[in-house]
Amino acid sequence: MSTSAPPLPLQNHGGAHASTPSRRERDETYWGVIVALSDRWRVIIDEQGDQFILQKHYAESLHGGVWRGQSYSTTRDGLIAACVRRDCLSEASQELLLDALPSTVREYAAQIELPR
Length: 116
What we know:
Layout: E1 33-36, E2 41-45, E3 52-61, E4 64-73, H1 76-85, H2 92-99, H3 105-111
Antiparallel strand pairs: 1-2, 2-3, 3-4
């Protein structure tokens, strides 16, 4: 088990499209992004704090794309296994970030401020 602090949800880093964080998991500016693994893969926490979600980005229209859930886990180990199965961890540092998460999503949710 790692002794480093777990990653907190990313702050809105939308650049030219920065806006108020969204409550919709499919949006680029979703409030609960934990880590962006690449331009096409990211890990979020759902709004209720019940699951880690591995998402993949899909370009579905001329106006941009959406994020779609590919795996849903309640544990860190389940999340890491899903990332390994989908070959999402291209750098060792990404696995270290995920390894720094608490062992369950409930523990992680207790450490952050969920939206109301």
